[in-house]
Write a structure and sequence with these properties.
By secondary structure, the chain is an alpha/beta fold. The protein has one domain: Nucleotidyltransferase, domain 5 (2-Layer Sandwich), CATH 3.30.420. Helix content is about 45%, strand content about 20%. The protein is built from five helices and six strands; from the N terminus they run H-E-E-E-H-E-H-E-H-H-E. The chain has a six-stranded mixed beta sheet with strand order 3-2-1-4-5-6, sandwiched between helices. Helix 1 crosses helix 5 (about 130-155), helix 2 packs across helix 3 (about 85-100) and helix 4 crosses helix 5. It is globular and about 40 Å long. The protein starts with a helix and ends in a 23-residue tail after the last strand.
Length: about 180
């Protein structure tokens, strides 16, 4: 047991300091969450309307909060397949990477984040319409908290880094690893 505690402590020291943003890209709304500078806690930040100006709005949030990275959720099917929503998120992340360079943009598996966020909001007593208005930012917070926790435990950031110019992978892992998804780096 003491050995496990030491491993966690060593991984805790490996967590990079700085605010992170997470983005949950939907067809109508984009949820945004941010972490504290120590990477201990992810909190819902805002919801951006999808469409003209959405990328610029997120780039402004990145600059305003001085983020060290932006994590974009990649909606992967439970089977592991990537559908049209994943392709849309990848395109969005690639365009965002161009706007926020040199801040890294990472794609991370977001399986079940919206389901978890919606369930938590229901338990908190949020009614349907009010819940719908914040579920995307809550899903982004679930994604970000999972990413922070995984980095704290493993010492490695989650996901796939997109290159700022062309969307090519700048990292060394072909897999998109999200919170709880494991995978080799």
């Amino acid at each position: 047991m003491a050995e496990r505690r030491q491993t966690v402590r060593r991984a805790d020291r490996a967590l990079r300091r700085g605010v992170r943003l997470a983005v949950d890209v939907g067809s109508v709304r984009i949820g945004v969450a941010k972490s504290d500078p120590d990477g201990a806690l992810a909190s819902p930040l805002t919801t951006v309307r999808r469409g003209a100006g959405d990328l610029a709005a997120i780039a402004r949030l990145n600059a305003e909060h001085g983020a060290i990275e932006v994590i974009v959720g990649l909606p992967v099917h439970l089977s592991g397949r990537h559908g049209s929503s994943a392709a849309d998120a990848r395109t969005f992340a690639t365009q965002l990477a161009q706007l926020v360079a040199p801040t890294p943009v990472r794609l991370a598996d977001e399986r079940l984040t919206t389901v978890l966020a919606d369930a938590a909001l229901r338990r908190a007593g949020r009614a349907g319409r009010k819940r719908r208005a914040v579920v995307d930012q809550a899903a982004a917070a679930v994604l970000l908290q999972g990413a922070l926790d995984q980095e704290r435990l493993t010492g490695s950031p989650v996901g796939e880094v997109l290159g700022p110019a062309d969307g090519d992978v700048a990292g060394d892992s072909p897999a998109v690893r999200g919170p709880g998804q494991g995978g080799a780096r």
